[in-house]
Amino acid sequence: MNDYSIIIGPVDTEKTNVQKEELNKVTFEVAPTANRVQIRKAVENIFDVRVRTVRTVRVKGKVKRRGRIAGKRKDWKKAIVTLMPGSRIRFFEGA
Model's pTM, two decimal places? Predict the structure, then answer.
């Protein structure tokens, strides 16, 4: 697995924005098979930052209904990455 197949994309919500600004934590959607060591190396290589910790969460997909037909969103995995003090990811800086 290469670095770009491990990091799928950023998670941009109100909660993640507060964590980014106050706690220097960035949240990504990652590959379901990726472990913490792979995620750490991928973030450090792609964004050229130093990572303090990585926490992972498996998010269960919600069941959604449209009339009588029930469907399910996909399960996914997210990683909350705490950066070292002084490290910033410019991708998330405002325009």
Answer: 0.89
d(CA 15, CA 88): 18
Q: State the fold for domain 3-85.
A: Alpha-Beta Plaits (3.30.70)
CA distance 54 to 10: 14
Q: Closest Cα partner for 11 from 63, 52, 41, 56?
A: 56
Enter the tokens of residue 4. 């770009």
Which tokens in the block code for residue 30? Answer: 């990652």
Q: Which residue ranges make up each domain of the chain?
A: 3-85
Per-residue pLDDT of the chain (95 residues), as tens digits, is: 899 999 999 999 999 999 999 999 999 999 999 999 999 999 999 999 999 999 999 999 999 999 999 999 999 999 999 999 999 987 756 55
